Records
---
Amino acid sequence: MRSLPRVRRRFVLLVAVVLAVVCGGAVTLAARRGPDGARRAHAAHTVTYDHYSLKLDGNRVYLWSAEFHYWRLPSPDLWRDVLEKFKAAGYNATSIYFDWAYHSPKQGVYDFTGVRDIERLLTIAQQVGIYVIARPGPYINAETDSGGFPGWLTTQKGRARSSAPDYTQAYREWLRHVDPIIAKHQYTDGTGPVILYQIENEYGTHTDKAYMKDLKKQVRADGIDVPFTHNHCCGASKWATGGGSVDLPGQDSYPQKFNCSTPDRWNGLATLPRFRDDAPIFTPEFQGGAYDPWGGPGYDKCRTLTGPDFEKVFYKHNLATGVTMQNFYMTYGGTSWGWLADPSHVYTSYDYGSAIKEDRELTPKYDEAKRLGYLTQAVAPLTKTDPVSAGKPTNADVTLTARANPDDGTRFSVLRHRDATSTTTETTHVPIDLTAGRQGGAAVSYPSVPQEPGTKIKLAGRDAKLLVAGYHLGSQQLRYSTSEIMTHGRIGDRDVALLYGRRGEDGETVLHYDAAPSVTVLSGKVRHVWNAGRGDLRLNYTHQGLARVLVTPRGGVPVLLLLATDQEAARFWRQDTAAGPVLVRGPELLRSAAVQGPALALTGDTSAVTGLEVFAATSVRTVTWNGAPVRTTGDDTLTGRLAGPRRVTVPALTGWKVRAESPEARPGFDDHGWTVANRTTTNNPTRPATAPVLYADDYGFHYGDVWYRAHFTAKGGETGVTLTAGTGKAGVYSVWLNGKFLGSSGDGRHTFAFPARAAAKGRDNVLSVLVENMGHNEDFDATDTHKEPRGLTGAKLRGSAAPLTWRIQGGEGGEELPDPARGPFNTGGLYGERNGWHLPGGADAGWTATTLPRRDTRPGVSWYKTTFDLNLPKDQDVPLGVTFTDDHSRHYRALLFVNGWQLGRYVNDVGPQRSFPIPPGILRANGRNTLAIAVWNEDGKTGGLGQVALRQYADLATSLRVADVTTPR
Ligand code: IPT
């Protein structure tokens, strides 16, 4: 991708008008109001599209995009890490949801600072050189609480995602806050990376055209002038034509679905639709992984379900069917830290089994995405293709689909099993017909490829191959190759082309020349024959390691062919510099390359001592790696060695202290400062089972645990209490009478029997109830499912009509956040949370020394804390996490706080997550860290806390630098 343009504003009305006329359907004439209210038009840069592809400044681009959620990574310097990793894999864009709730704890209150600083996010994207698809909702789904709606929105009367007046006022408020920040970073203005803006999300059923129209109107009024997109899932409204329609409609697709417990079960191909003839085929979300619920099989299984074989077959099928805009959801998932997770689909980790793990490690899925991504960015004719007839492979169990670029004839054939889910090994020959092409006027056809006797094309198990033919590969004419193209470019005085195939499989590459070129096999075993009649140089080889062939045509530009296995190909990195493309072989990651005179400055990561090989312009004589000179040899490519990281050891966690809380369970606890819960009405579509209304949200407590206390004067016949609580999936609530523990229940109704004589007749008795709120549901169908009540929804004494008078206490301050830096999702209403026990620097009074594991039969909540010091090398990225080990039959759950940030919700008897990555920045790499764990003993028998340890996931030497996140104490 070319680097993004610098600030360049031209308000040339005439040019804009002409462009608007020429470019038809797309939004080229960007007309918006300036601060003076005057309508202005500017055409500094354009984002347009046609039947085939997106165009930037009139140039076709293949959109190869990676989904990222900054709010799932609360450490801004790591945003750069992730975006650099995307860019390095060949993604030219990132698609970003903006989570309304993350920024708004209360109606009218918005925060875009610290870990919420989206201005910084968009600036980083610009610096990294990656385009942005902005998706601010207002509804986003995304397996997050309320699908991104703020907690305060759950109490509105009007249906969300409709034209209801209260909802309208609310979403306009959000857009008015978020849009101007996005608007400042638009490609069209020459000021930023934002090229597209999504309206709403998978809005297909229970839709409201007026709402869609108003969203568009509001967003344009807010200064957004890039084209509007939409992601269709299901339902009638595709927003492709008619009222409320968007510029660029697209289809989301999750062909493997989300059951990671059967990771080898494939569901077969789905072909993406073209919604409008004047717009390209676009998939705003194509499956990049899968979510995993409480008690699920874990994300490694999701990574298998959507592994490299899946990427090969499904992503190439998209290429084969003419898709030129693909965004992969997720490419880096991150962490639903605090109470960000929606209860039904996910736990804390949002790793998603994606190409980049939650702890930011690259996986084999990343390698495959990179092999394909590089192709989409290097082989330009792919941006404009029509279907053509492919001919029949010799093996009837395989299918060949072909497309060709109508201008230059480049032909793309995708070969796969007829049944895409098949695991058999097939071999075949295929026809490659270039007679329709315009290759130098030569109409040629190869009825049976590969031509070399005894060789064949193989599909070993689940696999697909994208074969390019009739292609101007730099200055060469590629007739065809049965190897796949990863990338190529003019580097120095020759072309360099990197081709790859599966280890041990045959490869055949045919290049056309007017006269016999000279061929030098530099390494590996490569046979070559010259067919003078056809002017074809045919190379045959078995993919094994890395073979190199230099072909020098008479009087033409030489080409260095690099013929690699998949694995060898993945070790190559490409970066485009002012002096042309640079290929680098060896390191774990190449983040950047810059050429200045004879010096090439490279930055990146290594996980061990690594060989380095640089393919760069002939002018490049010296190389630095992360700022330090590399001693290189060779005068063709430059080779050298890169150091790996130093070994680090993480400290054992010792010095634990414990402190019991839940004084709220005791009868004498002073609750007079709590909110009286006496509402008799609610806007909630769910009517309460009993009066008063006890819904936590109605009292401004939207996240985490909530305490209730009810006083009643016993009449004497009380035998128990029937409570109904809405916790969301896998949640729990515990109940006490006058300090005596009655037990716990999961979501729903439960009767708690009173022990004999526990309720004192004629006297004040106190029920204490601690209810967990696992989060609000999503609102997928626009039916207000996010409003399903949380907290207590009904309460009735058994054997008595004595009235209950209630008070409620959730997170300190409710919607008035005591700790805006950590934000609305960080804490709930536990005593320790309300009193800052989770924060670093608290006093030690009341805490006693202990060791782990520890057994505890006291019901309710106890806290454990310790500190540890880290002194990690500044130039190393050492992803660390906290791991819990215990017998899973013990019924307790825990909140994990690191330096005051809640980064894990551990449920010992549900799982599956037992290891919680802590992002650097939150974790102090050089200094003291405070760990605090609030443990809720659910049965008063099997509580306590198991083994808790730091775990090191990886160790990398890196150029990445991470500043500590500003954290109030
Ligand atoms: C689709 C949503 O748009 C996205 O926000 C996320 O929830 C994703 O799926 C799943 O992870 S909804 C799906 C039913 C296609």
Note: The radius of gyration is 31 Å.
---
Amino acid sequence: MAHILVVEDEPGIAMALEDDLALEGHRVALATDGIEASRLARSLPFDLILLDIMLPGKDGFDVCREIRRAGLTVPILMLTARVQETEKVLGLDLGADDYITKPYSHHELRARIRALLRRASVAPAQKHSFGDVEVDLVRAEARRAGRVVELTPLEFKLLAAFLQSPGRLLTRQLLLDAAWGKDVYVTERAVDNQVMNLRRKLEDDHTNPRFFSSVRGLGYRFDAGGVTDS
Ligand code: CA
């Protein structure tokens, strides 16, 4: 079934979760502190992450942010112990997909997990290529002619937004929301600068881009096949 990372520091709960998920046929990895969780989540491909909030080392909020900053789209189900935490999950743009309040019922947990896995399985492809560039969205890695291209988290998020909507006009505002988040104040000029960086790193000639073209006055469009401006 699925490969699930359980992040929980209370041994009793961790063991119950592991047993329950294994019974459902899932493969389970366990992290008992936030630092280990963040490292594991960013180095191995998981289908789902069950993330407790109160953790030693680094709390679940920070772990969730780090996973999203790395460009990973893995579904994250937060485990919250208190009402205040639930509000935080709802109120902050953390990038978690859902939350469940402890003590939870196994029935509810299973249902949430199934729903998240179903949603993820109809998600768009995670591997893309154009020209001599290959991008793996799960690993948050871009390669050009086989060599890793260093992209900042912002550049990677922008790239992911382009790859997920090939051939479509993406307005600066839409790109801004996708890369910076909705409640951040950034000028549209910042989008232009980041797209310029992507062109420099991924196009043969950034002054005459094939893949990331400008749509005058509106935004940008990505074409995997490459188009040249006429
Ligand atoms: Ca805990």
Note: The mean pLDDT is 88.
